Amino acid sequence: MKAVLCRRYGPPEVLRLEEVEEPTPKPGEVRIRVWASAVTSSDCYLRGLNLPFRYRALARLALGLTGPRWPVLGMVLAGEVDTIGPGVRSFKVGDEVFGLDRHRFGTYAEEVCWPERTVLALRPVELSWEETAALPYGGLLALHYLRKAGLARGQRALVYGASGAVGTSAVQLARHFGAEVTGVCSAANTELVKSLGASAAVDYTTEDFTARSERYDVIFDAVGKRKSSAALRHAHKALASGGRIVSVDDGTPRLLATDLVLLKQLAEAGRIKPVIDRCYSLEDIVEAHRYVDQGHKRGNVVITVARQQRQRSS
Question: pTM surpassing 0.90?
Fold first, then answer.
């Protein structure tokens, strides 16, 4: 089968498309034919080991000294179960699934074996494979941090970085939970953010949201402190009494299969919709990583993995 391997840390050019052996599921695992994946910011951080200097030594011990210990990257998938290992009870051959695994990775490949008890669920069949692959990363992170912030119906929420993968999900989920949402993004993305349910969109290149009269119960940094630290330095000025500021860099998020089911239900009901900036083939993974590294994507960058095989099987 084809897979993209990352044998050393570095720029996008370290990624190589190679032929590797198909994996065999172990007890409790399912093998999934991957139809689509996504290039997340986490994938790019891992590929380049783009971490603050003080964390790099620990990261190398955990992930691999000179390159990722598990060289096939990719943590998001939409695909079809084609083999089950001994003892599997939750899924059967032919199930169409989607999910995210931050520990096993492996979705930049035509086949991957994941534990049945990872963050995996039946997919929303009304969506395309590419749209399905665009749901888990931003959706699961946004759900975790909005809960952490204690967002409640009737509150006012501000999402900083509202046009990215996490931000577009956060705007829609906050609106679904009954909050009034303001999104902060560039001028090019204000209409997109409003179309997702934000009542207002602030262009961060021309306006400081902390200088506005509005006060927010929740301010959610959806891009991470390395990019947002300067802009959010005075964010407390925009907080309502008892308000909270949370960031995607605050601790290790708890991602749940039950939340994946919630995302499926909301997508099927039309309450949330995945936002896709660009789609690339597996063969163009280097170019996809280059684009995500620029830091200006709208929503998600999706990888179509097994297009020719899918066409033959349909």
Answer: yes
